[in-house]
Amino acid sequence: MKTTPKIFYRQIGEIVFSSKPGRFVPKIFVVGDNIDPSDLHEVVWAEATKSPPQDSDFFFVGNYPIYKLVPYATYGLNTNEPQAKVVRLCMLPGEFKTLDRPWVEASFRSSFPEQIKKKVLESWQAYGYKTRDPLNI
């Protein structure tokens, strides 16, 4: 991406939270290109492994419209203060400097050769699991 996390989160937050549809969006999870954002398992994995507490949350407070039916906006700790919106980066700093990843992903899909993965998947139900996919247990 050849940018910095600070520039990237600021651009995303400004564009989304300043827009009319952005009033319905309290949080944005930003994941890398190796994560399928439509797969909740992968998003949770990215958030748990690539998002250090406090360093990955970027708050937007102020002139960003909110939707009053979002419970935290009207029933939060202090309803008189403007409510914050957040962009959470679920990416490592290295993903911003270069497209080359200096790390190896520790997961079933990337840590084993294809022949081993195929053998495990073919025998998955014989191991006593109901689904065929070990990623969706």
UniProtKB/TrEMBL annotation:
<feature type="domain" description="3-octaprenyl-4-hydroxybenzoate carboxy-lyase-like C-terminal">
    <location>
        <begin position="9"/>
        <end position="87"/>
    </location>
</feature>
<dbReference type="InterPro" id="IPR049381">
    <property type="entry name" value="UbiD-like_C"/>
</dbReference>
<dbReference type="Pfam" id="PF20696">
    <property type="entry name" value="UbiD_C"/>
</dbReference>
<protein>
    <recommendedName>
        <fullName>3-octaprenyl-4-hydroxybenzoate carboxy-lyase-like C-terminal domain-containing protein</fullName>
    </recommendedName>
</protein>
